[in-house]
Amino acid sequence: MKKMFAVFKREYIQAVRKKMFIVMTFLMPALMIGLFMIPSLIMERGLGQKHVVVLDGTGQLKEAFTAPEKREEPDIAFGKKGRDIPQQIQIEYVDARGKDVEQAAKPYLDRLGAKNGFDGVFLVPPDALTSRETKLKYYSRSATDFMTQGRLSSRANRLVQQNRLAARGIDPAEVEKLMTDLRVDAVQLSKGGEQKKGGVANFFVGFILIALLFIPSFIYGLEIMRGIIQEKTDRVVEVLVSSMSAKQLLIGKILGVAAVGLTQVGVWLTMAALAGGVGGTILAVAGENFLQLLRLSTFIYFVIFFILGYLTYVCVYAIGGAVCNSEKEAQQLIMPITMTMMLPWFLMAPIMTNPDSSLAVGFSLAPVFGPLTMYARTLVADPPMWHILLSILVSIATIAAFFWVTAKIFRVGILSYGKRPTIPELWRWLKVA
């Protein structure tokens, strides 16, 4: 036990003393926030100064394209109105009433994509107000310029609908009132009857917490793999196993690096709690309950499933380090296994949007996939307690089996050099170790 603790202490202190550990511990939250926020900001401002010409064959939609665009987006946390979106599309309106819009568009299409030309040409047919079969048309150099297309289409269709209703004798002011979109408040109803708001916010908070759950496991799993390979290369491992068993060395390494990961994640959660406390106070003054997005069980389950997920994943990396003689070999061996283990992450959107589906339940109760999937389910729903307990028991059994296999392969593999063993050779190692 003392020898195992000595390995544990060495691995932990060696890792936390590194400058990179300290820097990344405090820098990673900013990087995570940037990872989630920057793409949305880029998408919001990605339209830039789009210069689009609109040829209106009806001659009655000028207001839709010349009035300043002001859209209000729902707040992701509480469903309330957000800020106005500034004008991002420069529109040149052309009244093509009484003309063939396709012919009238040719001079503009010739300038499409040219320097000081147009980024898009939007056509409204003359019968847009009367025919349900007619189609709007958008020309651009990019086949995926769907954001500009969608915003122009939304502008045109809204005024087309208003004009159609006005043509049937409904007052335009009444039309505007009748066509006002209603806001939707997302409410989660627990099995105990408790109502919790959050909506899209729970989805994004869930993604962030799940990323914190598995990313450190893979990062420190790689550290264990590299450390074992380095010790094999330097022949240090031969000295270590002469004074302790391979099992003690393996468990000490895994638990030491697990403590490093828990330390780092603990700092992140503390920082998040402090930031959440300040933000929650501000929102409380505004009459909003931010704490409805986070519960005590969220953090309890996080610690439980972090440990289970970490110990599950890291055993695979330990095997990779034990059976390979170089980092390149180990990465080639581990890559397909890692991609398989990340399958719940790739399916996280359907799992979180339908946490009681057969897919979500099956993954949450399966070996290897259980910790990540079950934690996602606890974030957005209230799965039965027996599902949670069964997932924990399955994960513990999986870890025990992995430790048994890893220890046997590790015992032979750390002293094996040369060609990487084949599957039959690994099977023989399991039987003789």
Explain how this protein is built:
By secondary structure, the protein is α/β, with parallel strands linked by helices. The strands form 3 sheets. A 4-stranded mixed β-sheet has the order 4-1-5-6, with helices on both faces. Strands 2-3 form a two-stranded antiparallel ribbon. Strands 7-8 form a two-stranded antiparallel ribbon. Mean pLDDT is 76; it is low at 72-87. The chain has helices spanning 2-16, 19-45, 62-66, 101-110, 146-167, 172-178, 200-233, 236-241, 246-285, 296-323, 327-341, 343-346, 348-353, 358-364, 370-380, 385-413, 423-432, and strands at 50-56, 72-74, 81-84, 89-95, 120-124, 137-140, 187-189, 195-197. The protein has 17 helices and 8 strands. Helix 10 packs antiparallel against helix 11 and helix 14 packs across helix 15 (370-380). The protein folds into 2 domains: 2-39 and 199-432, no CATH class; 47-184, no CATH class. Helices cover 64% and strands 8% of the residues.
- Please, how many helices? 17
Mean pLDDT: 76
* SSE topology string: HHEHEEEHEEHHEEHHHHHHHHHHH
Q: How many strand segments? A: 8
Whole-number count of domains: 2
Distance between the termini: 21 Å
**3D shape:** elongated
Largest sheet: 4 strands, mixed
- Biggest sheet strand order reads 4-1-5-6
CA radius of gyration is 30 Å
Task: Estimate percent helicity.
Answer: 55-70%
**Low-pLDDT regions:** 72-87
Classify the secondary structure makeup into a structural class: alpha/beta
Beta-strand portion reads 5-15%
